[in-house]
């Protein structure tokens, strides 16, 4: 399997499990309805961990354009591979969102709130404030990339790294996710948002394109800054 296919499959798995847990929590008549933020953050953390276990040995398990660009910016990843990685990540996220739509097919009609339906696919701010929202996404991804590089600098029992990364994602979600829903990943947000736009979801409302640029630009800028700062501090 090529690294591009691994990124596609890994990102698809990430979104299936991540958007899937959100769907279970917010869609009506789901047995997980209203189980809360902790369930969502744990679901996303385990989604990252097990996606990395699945294909990380092949591609490095980026699943996130902000990580790919950040690693390239400090010479830890080849720039010529960046476009292919991002394309694979976007395609995987889009396909994963379609899977979640099909999996929860009867629940869309049972859910009246368009915002709840959109939340399954992508993020939205708790308080709409452009500067604060982009700061949240930027700083969240700054700590994501800085933390990933720090974790990579440590030695763990063989095979434990993906699980440590998953728990790190849980920590980010619990501590920094309450403002914007911690996209911290342009593919994870934009790919499913595109799926929401094209899928025949009953009463889905708008895909909120006016906000869509923030979870793209914020993570890329913040993630690159996190990588540069880590390199400046630790070499």
UniProtKB/TrEMBL annotation:
InterPro entries for this protein: Aquaporin-like (IPR023271), MIP (IPR000425), MIP/Aquaporin (IPR050363), MIP_CS (IPR022357)
Gene Ontology CC: one annotated term: plasma membrane
First-listed, main subcellular location of the protein, grouped into a coarse class: membrane
GO molecular function (one): glycerol channel activity
Record's keyword annotation contains Nucleotide-binding: no
Transmembrane portions of the chain: 6-27, 36-56, 86-104, 131-151, 163-184, 212-234
UniProt cross-references to Gene3D superfamilies, sorted A to Z: Glycerol uptake facilitator protein
Membrane topology: Multi-pass membrane protein
UniProt keywords, alphabetically: Membrane, Transmembrane, Transmembrane helix, Transport
SUPFAM superfamilies: Aquaporin-like
Family: Belongs to the MIP/aquaporin (TC 1.A.8) family.
The protein's name: Aquaporin
């Amino acid at each position: 399997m090529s690294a591009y296919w691994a990124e596609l499959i890994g990102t698809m798995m990430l979104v299936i499990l991540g958007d899937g847990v959100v769907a279970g929590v917010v869609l009506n008549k789901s047995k997980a309805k209203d189980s809360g933020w902790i369930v969502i953050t744990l679901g996303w953390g385990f989604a990252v961990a097990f996606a990395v276990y699945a294909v990380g040995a092949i591609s490095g398990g980026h699943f996130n354009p902000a990580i790919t660009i950040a690693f390239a910016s400090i010479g830890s990843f080849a720039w010529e591979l960046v476009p292919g990685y991002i394309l694979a990540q976007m395609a995987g996220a889009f396909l994963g969102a379609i899977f979640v739509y099909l999996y929860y097919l009867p629940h869309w009609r049972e859910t009246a709130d368009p915002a709840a339906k959109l939340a399954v696919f992508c993020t939205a701010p708790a308080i709409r404030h452009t500067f604060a929202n982009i700061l949240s996404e930027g700083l969240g991804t700054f700590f994501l990339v800085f933390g990933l590089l720090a974790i990579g600098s440590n030695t763990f029992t063989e095979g434990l790294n993906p699980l440590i990364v998953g728990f790190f994602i849980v920590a980010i979600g619990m501590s920094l996710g309450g403002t914007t829903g911690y996209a911290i990943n342009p593919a994870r947000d934009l790919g499913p948002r595109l799926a929401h736009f094209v899928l025949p979801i009953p009463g889905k409302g708008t895909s909120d394109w006016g906000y869509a640029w923030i979870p793209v630009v914020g993570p890329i800028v913040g993630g690159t800054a996190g990588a540069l700062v880590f390199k400046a501090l630790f070499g």
